[in-house]
Here is the input.
Amino acid sequence: MLHKLFTLPFKAVIKVGEIIKEEADRELYDLDFIQQQLIQLQTLLEMDEITEEYYQEREEELLLRYEVAKEKEQEKLDELEE
Amino acid sequence: MKNKVGVYTFCSIKKREPSTFGFVQFENKQTQVYTVHYKDIAMVVAKVPLKIYTPKKENLLAHQTVVSSVMKEHAVIPISFGNVFKTEEDVKILLEKLYIQFNQLFPQIENKIEVGVKVIGKKEWLKNEIEKNASIFHLKKEIKNKPKDAAFYDRIKLGDLTRNYFSSLQEQIVSDVFAPLSKLSVSSKQNDVLTERMLLNAAFLIDCHKETEFDQKVNECYQKWGDKVDFKYSGPWPPYNFINIKLKIEG
Here is the structure.
């Protein structure tokens, strides 16, 4: 697979790169995905599988991502309104 | 967005006359909960500063508290957390667009509630069960006797065996807990399990008059499995898992 990737034309490699980035962006800035992760985090805390400290760190990170995702959503909405 | 006021949406109800539902506190600001109407349906809303509300505990609780209090008197179509519109007019346009869809949904959720059942394997029981599994036990022993690098593929195999074993436990719980509870519900749904030890994460839509019968069935399941697993039985919720309106921008 790796060999095949290197024999692809440069454009195709860029395309693969774009797809990978899109997937990463989806996970990073997908509101449903972020909310699902927050629920999972809350469940882990309730089950004593993680510490309160870890919970807070991770929650903060997820809430920041949520805020960015919402901003992106708002930008899209503003573009549509223009 | 600074200093601008927006309209936060909680849920929709079937109602023609304007109503209020007490107050909600969002990030230290208290504001009245009221309805915005289109024909005979209404959106339960509150005027809030126009900004992004993150789903932190206090905000989620504020959202949920309003929906729960509306639920005491009405069948509700829940709206997902965090949707703020610029004006009441925008909310009316949304209601107009969703009018037919909402009118079809209301009779389906009248006198129905959602409950959640999560089944989580107790650590000690899971450990004992895994140790009882002959193939896992032998492979673990083999790995222990091999140098770390040489046991690489065995470790992958052990991971697969353990996963398969957990899947078989999940199937057991589905047939022993999920299936009988589903029979008593109008609709049921299995969500993804959220942790390794979680064996079932299910939601059920039940008729209000069957709530006691459903409770009894959950108790029966608990009697049978309670020494091996923990049950997290929650609700009543609005039908989040069956009709949660997620407002998404397309284009």
In short: Residues 113-124+162-240 of chain B form a domain with the Alpha-Beta Plaits fold (CATH 3.30.70.100). Chain B has a mean pLDDT of 90. Residues 152-183 of chain B form the longest helix (32 residues). Chain B touches chain A at residues 52, 54-56, 81-82, 118, 120, 194-195, 197-198, 246, 249, 251 (CB under 8 Å).
